[in-house]
């Protein structure tokens, strides 16, 4: 097994789970960790929310021992509050503090946070420097190829962040205006890797072991990160590990295994968030687990019927029946 080091933090060189707001919550992260995700990052933590004592924001900072190595991810546009928030995060003892400079969501960008910072490198530098100064652990930054096709500045941005003292960077090969459409630009990730001496994490269009190895080989990145490729497929991290280790292609699990993983995942969501709220949030995960199954379009339309955890048993039987009918 190969490893990379971010500061003093040792991480298996397989695949990390990308931070995804409203998706990669604790239950999602732990499911991926169980299948071998080598590194996890929290949901976005508002620097001002933390500084002003918001209880919901503080709960996002809680760390399960099983999640380590683990980063708490901050977002914000004000260097002062970002530095103060980093100092507050120290008491939670994260392995790493990550700064979000890549989120494309309008409500984040409109405040000057997330990928909007790629249009304001001076402010981005000030934020990174303040967080580094106040953190008691390595600091990383996740960003994109640029704001749009006409302003791809990832290489210059990466060099600037290295000068600010960050320990590693993660680059998503899409611009902000692309959101998650089109193809990720691995050439940009490769150029970023060649431009800096700190570790570079590559993100974009990694969905299995073969594509993970392809990103490693093409870009020279130190670690790959998987986001949407893990939707309803936490086992993708096992697939990557096996392929990198031996070239073995691990097939998608059979129907019964997929249903068991789905039910376990939904049970975890309800355990952490309560059954009423948990089942509301579980519906999108159930839809993702259905992808690729026979009759999945019809079944996805019925996910709104999932109200209680016990409803999953009935729903699982519907999935089996639909699969058998189409198969026959």
Description:
The protein has 328 residues and is an alpha/beta fold. The chain has two domains: 244 residues, TIM Barrel (Alpha-Beta Barrel), CATH 3.20.20; 73 residues, Non-ribosomal Peptide Synthetase Peptidyl Carrier Protein, Chain A (Orthogonal Bundle). It has 14 helices and ten strands. It has an eight-stranded parallel β-sheet. It has a two-stranded antiparallel ribbon with strand order 1-2. The mean pLDDT is 96.
The largest sheet, given as strand count, sense and whether it forms a barrel, is: 8 strands, parallel
Beta strand %? 15-25%
Provide the gyration radius in Å: 20 Å
CATH domain class of the largest domain: Alpha Beta
């Amino acid at each position: 097994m190969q490893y990379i080091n971010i500061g003093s933090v040792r991480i298996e060189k397989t695949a990390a789970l990308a931070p995804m707001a409203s998706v990669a919550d604790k239950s999602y992260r732990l499911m991926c960790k169980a299948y071998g995700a080598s590194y996890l990052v929290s949901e976005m933590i508002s620097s001002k929310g933390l500084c002003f004592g918001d209880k919901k924001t503080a709960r996002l900072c809680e760390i399960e021992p099983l999640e380590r190595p683990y980063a708490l991810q901050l977002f914000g546009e004000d260097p002062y509050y970002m530095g103060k928030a980093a100092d507050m995060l120290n008491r939670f003892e994260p392995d790493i503090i990550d700064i979000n400079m890549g989120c494309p969501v309008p409500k984040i960008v409109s405040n000057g946070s997330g990928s909007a910072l790629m249009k304001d490198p001076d402010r981005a530098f000030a934020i990174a420097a303040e967080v580094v100064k106040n953190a008691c652990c390595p600091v990383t930054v996740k960003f994109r190829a640029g704001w749009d096709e006409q302003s791809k500045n990832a290489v210059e941005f990466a060099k600037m962040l290295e000068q600010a003292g960050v320990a590693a960077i993660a680059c998503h090969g899409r611009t902000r205006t692309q959101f998650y459409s089109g193809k990720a630009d691995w050439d940009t990730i490769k150029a970023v890797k060649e431009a800096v001496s700190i570790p570079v994490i590559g993100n974009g269009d990694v969905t299995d072991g073969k594509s993970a190895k392809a990103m490693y080989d093409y870009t020279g990145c130190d670690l790959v990160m998987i986001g949407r490729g893990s939707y309803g497929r936490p086992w993708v991290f096992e697939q990557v590990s096996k392929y990198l280790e031996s070239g073995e292609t691990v097939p998608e699990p059979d129907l019964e295994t997929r249903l068991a993983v789905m039910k376990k995942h939904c049970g975890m969501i309800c355990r952490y968030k309560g059954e009423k709220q948990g089942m509301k949030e579980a519906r999108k995960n159930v839809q993702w687990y259905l992808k690729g199954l026979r009759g999945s379009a019809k079944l996805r339309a019925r996910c709104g019927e999932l109200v209680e955890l016990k409803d999953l048993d009935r729903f699982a039987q519907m999935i089996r029946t639909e699969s058998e009918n189409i198969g026959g």
